[in-house]
Amino acid sequence: MTWDWGAVADFLPYFCKGLVVTLEALALGSLISFALGLVWTLLLRTPTRWVRWPVGVLTEFVRDTPLLVQLFFLFYVLPEAGVTLSPLTTGVLGLGLHYSTYTMQVYRAGIEAVPAGQWEAATALSLPVRRTWTAVVLPQAVRRVVPPLGNYVIAMLKDTPMLMTIGVLEMLGRARLVSQQHFQFTEPLTVIGVAFIVVSYLASLCLRTLERRLVR
Amino acid sequence: MSVETRKQPAVTGTLPTELIRLEGVTKRFGDNTVLDGLDLSVDAGRHVTLIGPSGSGKTTILRLLMTLAKPDEGTITVDGQRLFPAPEKQVREVRKKIGMVFQQFNLFPNMSVLRNLTEAPVRVLGLSGDEAEARARELLDLVGLADKCDAKPTRLSGGQQQRVAIARALAMRPRVLLLDEVTSALDPELVAGVLDLLRDIARSTDITMLCVTHEMGFARDISDQVLMFDAGRVIEAGPPEKIFGDPERERTRDFISAVL
Lengths: 216, 260
Description:
The complex is a heterodimer of chains A (216) and B (260).
Chain A: H1 5-43, H2 49-64, H3 67-77, H4 87-112, H5 116-124, H6 129-159, H7 171-182, H8 186-215
Helix pairs in contact in A: 1-4, 1-6, 1-7, 1-8, 2-4, 3-4, 4-6, 5-6, 6-8, 7-8
Chain B: E1 18-29, E2 32-43, E3 47-51, H1 58-65, E4 73-78, E5 81-84, H2 88-95, E6 98-101, H3 113-123, H4 129-142, H5 158-170, E7 176-180, H6 188-204, E8 208-212, H7 216-222, E9 225-230, E10 233-238, H8 240-245, H9 250-259
Parallel strand pairs in B: 3-8, 3-9, 6-7, 7-8
Antiparallel strand pairs in B: 1-2, 1-4, 4-5, 9-10
């Protein structure tokens, strides 16, 4: 096995395109999972059983089936129902949906960790329910929620290569294309491996800074 | 002092008006009957202290009045309006007349001391930010913490937090103030400051107080009436001199001599 810097140079332009797609999928997927997870959490706290029950079943189902199966389902089955989405859109939705069933548990734990006395004080002051959520409970839940949410972002980063299977040219997709054209596997795969480490590390640095700021 | 300006008719001369009425109130937790068909009436401006062994239902009464729990049976009326059973909208209206101070303070740690005092007056009473802030500063001055406006509650001592909590409750100008073992969580040297403040408020306002406490000296000082609870019932009621000095019931006598 020899290391060819020329192959690295040849791969770099493609790598950059792949990196952009990976980061795009990660950013959008994270945002969707954060928002959707909060929606699930709040829906599961409504008093109506007819809301809680279907949401419970759906999220349990999504959490217990593999992301790859969900991606295939979204990509190959949805068009049969007349919904055709681009590979990247499908991938972002898949990642966001899948991870929302995890972020939802993070939110739940964060909300349950807010002491009952906080709810009671809000009631004693006659604060409306909505205001109690936005001004008292959620702000206190946030600081407990950030560290685990950050861990899921890093886990999601490592799941982005799955999007290759539905035709998204993220980093692994690019590496595979270039490798197969030039029969050089070592350099492209090493480059993206290093890129994953760097992105993960930067993400965890950001996370630690954010945590420190919230704890203050 | 301008904490509470709505004057009640003087107790002498005119008939005292009933502010709180509980009729046949029963509360169970599982098999445990905490309140057993309780009848209770409190006149406006009175300071009533609830004493008795733990688990006798004292705190439950405060929680029912604050709508933190619902009775299983009976009715609760405050200021002539039904609090239970009542439609949600009416509950919300009646509840505004009641404030509560908790054993664990329960200040909002994500807000400054000042925001703790202005949040509800702005959101619930519809005061302007400036009005609410003026009222809050006045109250913080009253409780001796004018310099802590911008502090986060967690930076304060327990005694300071409890004084803020009292100010927060007063900022809503309630007619009734419920005090649930407000000094139990405090270090001994901080208790006196909180009790002095409450004595002050009791003396200088016409706010009605319902107070669950183990501080018998304080109870004797501020109460017009002391209710002795046992097993979900009031077994003896009377002025503090009577209850503490010469109780009629054996059970009351035993309890008083045990805690004094």
